[in-house]
Amino acid sequence: MHAGTWAALVHRLSGILLVLFLPGHFIALGSALEGAASFDSFLAWTQQPLVKFMEWGIVLSLAAHLGGGLRVMALEFLPWRDWHKGLAAAAAAAAIAVSLAFALAL
Amino acid sequence: MNARAQALLWAAQRASAAVLALCVVVHLATMVYAIRGGLSAAEILSRTRGNAGWLAFYSVFVLAVAVHAPIGLRPVLGEWLRWTGASRDLALAALAILLAVLGMRAVLGVFL
Amino acid sequence: MNTLKVRVWRGGAQGAFQSFDVPRHASQTVLDVVTHIQRALDPTLAYRYACRVGMCGSCAMTVNGVARWTCRTHVDKVAGEGHLEISPLKNLPIVRDLVTDMREFFDKWARAKGSFAGRRTRRDDFAQISSASKSRKEIDAAIECIGCAVCYASCDVVAWNPDYLGPAALNRAWTLIQDQRDREKVERLRAVEGDAGCHSCHTHLSCTERCPKQLSPTASIAGLKRETLRSLFGGSP
Question: Rounded to two decimals, what is the model's pTM?
Answer without folding.
Answer: 0.93
